[in-house]
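Hi again,

Forgot to attach this to my earlier email, sorry! This is the prediction with BV8 bound. I've pasted everything inline since the attachment limit keeps bouncing my files.
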Amino acid sequence: MCVLTGAGISAESGVPTFRDAQTGLWARYRPEDLATPEAFARDPQRVWEWYEWRRELVRRVEPNAGHRALVELAGKVPRLTLVTQNVDGLHQRAGSTGVIEYHGNILRDRCSAEGTLAGRSSLSITGLPECARCGELLRPDVVWFGEAIPRQALLEADVAAADCDVFLSVGTASVVYPAAGLAESALRSGARVIEINTESTALTPLADIALRGPSGDVLPQLLQALRR
Ligand code: BV8
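Structure tokens for the complex follow:
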């Protein structure tokens, strides 16, 4: 089994999805305009403000029944590979292991020049975090639009999608590539594709089964059915 999750699985934990109108302060910004290397080069302060706001929010929330159901599901099938587009780390906090963080993790910093992970260092005069080794700005360890997926994650997810018997897509609009291509790859390899989403998406017409509802309800129900 290969599972791909998106922002929808964290929605019931209180993490706004990308397609929701961003609440409050960020209502006027589009993620596509902030989550890019160009935005960071142009205005690192504003990009860091957005990520700090999201980090604080992620630190305050808890995994929900959907995250926990995937932990239990992993014990019920011969092999389950969990690929997430989310950067909130909630799958790991729920107990999932071997999580493929396709778009990185918002709670980690990395040096914008060396690419290496960095502990939080001294803040520069502008209040922005700098690399203790080279003095360049730190950035969140996430994949921005226009940036490549980390090689290891790309390869492992490709193999899991091509090899699986069942591909489960949970809480994603299936708009962002190459993540959205994983379900198509599974279909081409003859896998059954199941989608769990509160709405229909670009994947719905291609899926063998589309379960309509919040993942915090549907995933536990799916598990219940497996227990019989
Ligand atoms: C790449 C990390 C090439 C950062 C993210 C034109 C110009 C430029 C680029 C492109 C272009 N056209 C295509 C591209 C490629 C681009 C792309 O796909 N753009 C889209 C907008 C068309 N992709 C990229 O740029 C990727 N890189 O292509 O690089 C390359 C190759 C080699 C060398 C160099 C370069 C990188 C994309 C990664 C971007 N980073 N996140 C951060 O988080 O800050 S993307 C981010 O948005 C998320 O990670 C996620 O992937 C995406 C949001 O999507 P979803 O997760 O689906 O969430 P969304 O809000 O959209 O939907 C929520 C869903 O949940 C909905 O369907 C809703 O109905 C449902 N839902 C809600 N509540 C529930 C629920 N479901 C169940 N239960 C509920 N309770």
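The chain is about 35% helix and 20% strand. The pocket of BV8 is lined by residues 6-8, 11-12, 17-19, 32, 35, 85, 87, 103, 142-148, 171-173, 175-177, 179, 196-199, 201, 214-215 (CB under 6 Å).

That should be everything now.

G.
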